[in-house]
């Protein structure tokens, strides 16, 4: 929480006498700012018509006559137009010393652009110590506001400033001012310190009246009496602004007097600057014995829209004086002087702070707000509580304290999400239908220029039972957006890449029109698997290791499960299985092996096929099963199973050991299981004994090193050192299961054998595995322009050769080194190069990306190759940043919506552009992104905000890695006046 303390009330400055004007008739302006509000167009046009308001605070304690005579002010509109604007009546009073003069008019701009609106008043009030050495009477008052006049921004308003810019402070006490800025459109705000300005010209016709200069001899307030000391005793005094909250703090005043300062409030929408307000503030510093009241800290509040928010407020006064509690912020819908805003800042009901009268210390109050869905906004509401003490008249001056807290209003979660499958016999494809209750929080229909509110549908593989943390909106991690429907919808059908045997969790999130909306709390998840209306493969096991032809041919048995969820009595028969095969670990060249007609009768064996005459000794085989039903007398393919590979075992001789590794790409999971390793000491004909049970967690752990031990004695103990003159043969049995519990209940554990693989151990002087390093990228320290426009890359490898391993000497007679490379992590490495010894470095050149994996093996003079070194993979540092606006006006500058300078390692970009109504207007896919502001068919689109979804595929380590999704808004500006 932030506690803000401010000093003496200007309402009680009458008679103090520290301000001594030299010319009573000319002393008037203390502070002020300009705000704007775009007005609806009459008819069907989109005129850029604005209501422009100068709110000026006049000194009537020392210049009442002059303030009353200020019946008009000169405005400059930023397009070359100047206009004298009369004051509204009646004049409002902030307190006994200050009036609020309002100058308001309506103006229509001829076209879009960036316009700086300014107002000049002839004189400030006098004796401002940090302007013109105290002679501020002869310095005119000048403030400005910049607007981005663009029809695509809708009926945009500047933020309103709910706390008056006329303050008081006390010597030695930290002073803070917060404008209590509230943006009715929900845009984000930031703050920065500025220098008060004056107009160059004093007459009403010269263009110099529209140009500003810093006021003469300006000093920041903390410079007067420097170095000074902070309230806590530090030195020197400071003057700062919090760029996020807008707290301007002077810690702490040293000398009494009148001071002015200025700061800028910047308005942002989706990262685009759309306006600026300069506020000029006056503060009077006094000294006295009174102590400020203290407000108990107030925690931030998070509540669902529609709930009643109540918050207890408590303040105490060290001197025992009475206390008045007041509240500021957009939910109160009140001007600085306490009147209701018209038009309202937000839909009712409004917040209140009761009681409204002063109370004895300690004073207690209640902040109340009956919220509703029309008040949703993405950022928290800022509520400021002000406590003012009221000492007995004539004994001391009143002091103020401020305490600010946030109220985050969030949309409730969607309720009663359910899911049911739609796939059935005679249909093609797979589908899951989602249903939910009608959403309870429907805000008003947004303006046509804003993206409509919608329900976003997300999906994740696996069953997810997480609950979001408190006051958290939007989707949880791990989910992918698969679609959206209007907020009033209650159903959605998912047909996107659904797979049998996979459980899916769905969640939905209500997303409201920006900038005022945001996202709801995510719904509870619903988990579902598609009914098993098709078979699933359950086994691809090598029965016999051998060639494809001749004696001892290789044999593989393939099994599958009947469709669990299909009842033949429901129709769709006769049915047919078609089994297809491809040779090679990643091959897609499938050919049909057999077609099996079936009635799905339990008494008929129709779920096994023995594939004879395959080269199991030298190749991996892949199998896929297609399932056909009969529709109108014709066979129609209903489903295709996921692909299952045969288990492939590798064996490499080491120093009196043999290293085994195996892999299998299958639709079930072999992870988190115990695999069995068998060994024969007499050759491939056996017998084979179980020697090890290997607990595996993932692909990198499908390994075992045999040094001769037999760790499983149940079938006999065959332990013994591995002979250098012998060959040993191995086969591995993998154990797996499907994740889907329905399939798992039917199929149980899935057992598959590898082929038989034989190898011999090396002698004591066998080459040892080198230690490899590859130059890696440090993404955190990489310069933004690294690899800029670079299309060819290189990786530098270096390695060292050991003299011994595990106390055993390594063969020192190394002739060369074999380098192995795989473009993707998890792929089999291929021989890249043979490097003659003693060279131990290599530069892999002419690469399209730095991503890849490497191993190195030493080769001795006898041609024996060592085991593999450590495998080293190098990944990319991806970079793809998009701008937030572009100007396709043909001037050769910023004409195309394309990535900012130097995207890195981008392989493919897919982009879809939507207009503000959610209609798709453009899409493309390719190696680069370059949208010229036209539709897909080549027609120019009008200026405005457009929503984009960009999917970027990077040339990284993972094969078929999911694209990185970037979403946001880009502003298309046809008329870019003032933007260059």
UniProtKB/TrEMBL annotation:
Pfam families: CHU_C (PF13585). Gene3D superfamilies: Immunoglobulins. SUPFAM superfamilies: Fibronectin type III. It comes from the Bacteria. This is Gliding motility-associated C-terminal domain-containing protein. It comes from Fibrella aestuarina BUZ 2.
């Amino acid at each position: 929480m932030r506690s803000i303390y401010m000093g003496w009330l200007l309402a009680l400055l009458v008679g103090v006498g520290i301000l001594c004007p030299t010319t009573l008739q000319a002393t008037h302006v203390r502070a002020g700012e300009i705000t704007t509000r775009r007005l609806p167009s009459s008819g069907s046009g989109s005129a850029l018509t604005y209501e422009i308001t100068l709110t000026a605070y006049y000194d009537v304690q020392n210049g009442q006559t002059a303030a009353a005579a200020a019946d008009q002010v000169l405005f400059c509109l930023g397009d070359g137009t100047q206009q004298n604007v009369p004051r509204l009546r009646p004049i409002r009073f902030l307190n006994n010393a200050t009036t609020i003069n309002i100058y308001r008019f309506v103006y229509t701009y001829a076209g879009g652009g960036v316009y700086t609106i300014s107002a000049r008043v002839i004189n400030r009030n006098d004796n401002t110590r940090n302007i013109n050495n105290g002679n501020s009477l002869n310095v005119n008052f000048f403030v400005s506001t910049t607007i981005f006049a663009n029809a695509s921004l809708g009926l945009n308003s500047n933020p309103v400033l709910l706390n008056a810019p006329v303050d008081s402070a006390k010597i030695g006490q930290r002073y803070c001012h917060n404008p209590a800025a509230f943006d009715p459109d929900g845009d984000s705000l930031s703050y920065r310190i500025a220098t008060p300005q004056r107009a160059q010209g004093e007459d009403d016709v010269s263009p110099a009246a529209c140009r500003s200069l810093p006021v003469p001899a300006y000093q920041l307030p903390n410079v007067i009496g420097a170095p000074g000391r902070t309230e806590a005793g530090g030195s020197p005094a400071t003057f700062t602004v919090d760029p996020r909250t807008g707290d301007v703090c002077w810690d702490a005043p040293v000398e009494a007097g009148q001071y002015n300062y200025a700061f800028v409030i910047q308005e942002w929408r989706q990262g685009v600057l759309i306006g600026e307000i300069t506020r000029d503030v006056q503060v009077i510093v006094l000294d006295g014995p009174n102590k400020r009241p203290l407000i108990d800290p107030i925690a931030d509040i998070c509540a669902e829209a529609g709930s009643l928010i109540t918050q207890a407020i408590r303040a105490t006064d060290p001197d025992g004086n009475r206390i008045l509690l007041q509240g500021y912020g957009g939910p109160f819908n009140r001007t600085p002087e306490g009147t209701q805003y018209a038009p309202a800042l937000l839909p009712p009901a409004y917040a209140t702070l009761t009681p409204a009268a002063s109370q004895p210390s300690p004073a207690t109050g209640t902040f109340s707000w009956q919220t509703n869905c029309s008040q949703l906004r993405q950022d928290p509401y800022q509520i400021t509580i002000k406590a003012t003490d009221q000492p007995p008249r004539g004994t001391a001056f009143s002091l103020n304290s401020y305490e600010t807290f946030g109220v985050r209003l969030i949309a409730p979660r969607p309720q009663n999400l359910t899911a049911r499958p739609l796939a059935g016999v005679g249909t093609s494809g797979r589908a899951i239908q989602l249903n939910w209750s009608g959403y309870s929080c429907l805000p008003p229909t947004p303006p046509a220029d804003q993206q409509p509110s919608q329900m976003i549908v997300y999906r994740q593989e696996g069953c997810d039972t997480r609950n979001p943390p408190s006051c958290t909106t939007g989707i949880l991690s791990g989910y992918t957006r698969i679609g959206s429907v209007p907020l009033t919808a209650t159903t959605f059908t998912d047909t996107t890449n659904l797979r049998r045997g996979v459980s899916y969790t769905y969640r939905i999130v209500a997303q409201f029109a920006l900038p005022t909306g945001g996202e709801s709390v995510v719904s509870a998840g619903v988990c579902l698997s598609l009914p098993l209306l098709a078979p699933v493969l359950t086994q691809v096991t090598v029965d016999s290791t051998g060639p494809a032809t001749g004696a001892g041919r290789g044999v593989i048995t393939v099994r599958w499960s009947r469709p669990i969820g299909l009842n033949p009595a429901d129709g769709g028969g006769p049915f047919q299985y078609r089994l297809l095969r491809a040779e090679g670990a990643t091959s897609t060249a499938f050919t049909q092996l057999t077609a099996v007609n079936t009635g799905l009768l339990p008494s008929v064996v129709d779920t096994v096929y023995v594939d004879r005459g395959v080269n199991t000794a030298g190749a991996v085989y892949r199998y896929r099963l297609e399932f056909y039903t009969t529709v109108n007398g014709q066979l129609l393919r209903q489903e295709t199973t996921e692909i299952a590979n045969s288990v492939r075992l590798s064996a490499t001789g080491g120093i009196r050991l043999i290293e085994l590794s195996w892999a299998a790409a299958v639709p079930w999971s072999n992870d988190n299981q115990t695999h069995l390793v068998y060994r024969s000491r007499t050759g491939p004909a056996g017998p084979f004994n179980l020697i090890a049970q290997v607990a595996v967690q993932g692909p990198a752990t499908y390994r075992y090193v045999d040094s001769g031990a037999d760790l499983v004695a149940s079938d006999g103990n065959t332990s013994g050192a591995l002979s250098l003159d012998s060959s040993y043969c191995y086969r591995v049995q993998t154990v797996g299961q499907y994740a889907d519990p329905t399939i798992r209940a039917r199929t149980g554990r899935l057992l598959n054998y590898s082929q038989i693989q034989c190898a011999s151990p090396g002698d004591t002087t066998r080459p040892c595995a080198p230690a490899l390093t590859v130059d890696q990228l440090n993404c955190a320290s990489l310069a933004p322009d690294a690899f800029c426009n670079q299309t060819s890359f290189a990786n530098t490898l270096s390695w060292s050769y050991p003299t011994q391993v595990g106390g055993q000497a390594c063969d020192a007679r190394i002739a060369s080194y074999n380098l192995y490379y795989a473009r993707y992590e998890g792929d089999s490495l291929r021989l890249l190069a043979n490097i003659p010894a003693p060279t131990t470095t290599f530069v892999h050149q002419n690469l399209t990306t730095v991503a890849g994996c490497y191993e190195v093996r030493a080769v001795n003079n006898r041609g024996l190759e060592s085991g593999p070194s450590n495998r080293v993979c190098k990944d990319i540092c991806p970079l793809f940043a998009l701008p937030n606006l572009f100007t396709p006006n043909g001037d050769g500058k910023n004409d195309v919506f394309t990535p900012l300078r130097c995207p890195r390692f981008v392989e493919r970009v897919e982009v879809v552009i939507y207009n503000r109504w959610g209609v798709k207007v453009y899409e493309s896919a390719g190696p680069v992104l370059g949208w010229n502001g036209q539709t897909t068919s080549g027609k120019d689109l009008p200026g405005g905000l457009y929503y984009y979804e960009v999917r970027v595929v990077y040339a990284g380590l993972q094969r078929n890695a999911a694209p990185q999704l970037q979403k946001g808004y880009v502003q298309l500006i046809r008329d870019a006046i003032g933007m260059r």
